[in-house]
Amino acid sequence: MSRPRLLLGVQIATVVAILACVVALAALHPHRLDLTPERRFTLSAHTREVLARLHDDVRITAFYSSQEGVIRREMADLLALYQEAQPHIAVRLLDLDRSPGLSQRLGVSSYNTAVVEAGERRERLDLVTEETLTATLLDVAGTPPVVTYFVVGHGERDPRDGDERRGASEAARALAAEGFQVRALEGAAEIPADAGLLVVAGATRELPRAETDTLAAYLGRGGRALVLCDPGTPASVAGLLERFGIELALDVVVDEQARLFGTDGLSARVAYLNQALIPTPLDAQALLPVAQTLRLADPAPAGVRTDYLAMTGETAWADVDRRALHDGHAVFRPDHDRRGPLPVAALARIEGSDGREGRLAALGDADFVSNLHAIAGLVARGDALTGARPPAPPGGTFSPLMLTVGEARAILWGGVVTPSALLATAALWMARRRRLA
Question: How far apart are CA 33 and CA 42, in angstroms?
Fold first, then answer.
């Protein structure tokens, strides 16, 4: 064999070996670059956080229609992401028409439906999306669901009311997605035995003394409660908080930075969180419209530990006389008002009579809906799921391009493999010509 041919053979073998190493490394350490506008091939931080908490085996059985190939592919892609992120998850994707026995045992009679099973627990999803699937996993295989009662009857926000300003249905949906079972409770004279969390959201009328005593006794037995207070909160609610070392300042927060954008400045921005209690940053900074500040009693009542949970930014200040509610041009008075950062949320931990720790969180605004799940999780469970939630679908004219297996293979060979092989061949041929010249 001549020397040039031997060198060419060695070069070809070297290139093939390098390509084989690259393919092997890619198989061992796969990395996906998601360029879709809606990030449809990337799980949100919230979903990854929920999956990390799964320790038991979970089986997801999805049923599709053979006539709806696009929906089948979308479900398959989504379930593959879950299976890849959590080895405890097993996935079955079945044609409903070809699996009548299994579908009947699982109670499925419609296409594009999934059933999540973990041990003896089972739940069906009629709409398979990342949001619904993650919420179901959290409910079935994650932390146990928390029965949450919204106290109503004193002007509070009602979880059954769909009004965007006065209702709490949006907050109820957000909590339900986090594994909370939301219900309404008419008055607090008697608290159900299954209550894992009580929410008093913006009471505008006085609570009877019997109800505040019941709430205090509930907390003393290790209960969990979340109280949202607008400026002008009834004295009975303020008195309940004071029993546990949290005082309402009865002022209103003004944010000068917000005024620069043409608003009245009454939407306070939560800029700082207590990292010891909520170590992971929230997915979005919360806005508190028409909020008041809180103070912690010093010293705290016996058997109670108190901490601030959230603070505003430096550009906010507390209008002690609440002039800004009536005068949109109220200015800061150095000798009277208070500069930020200002505390707008606090947590009291109470030594329970039976050894269980009671928790009471208070926020200086009843419109606190964004990131309510983080505070509720901290109060009810002792931790919080703070990862970013799945983003809303983007606007515009983007739509997914669905390819068959043959079309995808043709694009791979025509756009990647063949050009690469031609370039490698041309480079070797030119190198050989130079050596022969």
Answer: 9
Beta pairing partners, 300? none
Asked if 297 and 308 count as a contact pair (C-beta separation under 8 A), the reply is: no
Residue carrying the six token digits 């009454």: 266
For residue 409, what are the contacts with CB-CB under 8 A and spacing of at least 6? Answer: none
Nearest Cα residue to 302 out of 370, 236, 231, 350: 350
Q: Using pLDDT thresholds of 50, 70 and 90, give the confidence band for residue 18.
A: confident
Euclidean distance between CA atoms 104 and 96, whole angstroms = 10
Bond prior to 159 in cis (omega within 30° of 0): no
User: Is residue 243 within 8 Å of 358, Cβ to Cβ?
Assistant: no
172-217 pLDDT tens trace: 887 887 778 899 999 999 999 999 999 999 999 999 999 999 999 9
Strands (E), 104-238: 113-118, 121-125, 146-152, 180-186, 197-201, 224-228
Position 389: which residue type? R
Cα–Cα distance for residue pair 215/209, rounded to 1 Å: 10
The span from the CA of 148 to the CA of 376, in Å, is 9
Which two tokens mark 186?
């008419």
Residue 266: strand, helix, or coil:
coil
The Cα 120–Cα 56 span in angstroms is: 12
Question: Is the link from the previous residue into 301 a cis peptide, with omega within 30 of 0?
Answer: no
Tell which residue, 226, 235, 248, has the closest CA to residue 344: 248
Q: How does pLDDT run across 392-418, given as a tens digit for each residue? A: 555 444 455 555 667 767 887 777 778
**Beta pairing partners, 133:** none
| Backbone phi, psi, residue 157, to 5° | -65, 135
| Opening angle at CA 116, ends 115 and 118, nearest 5 | 140
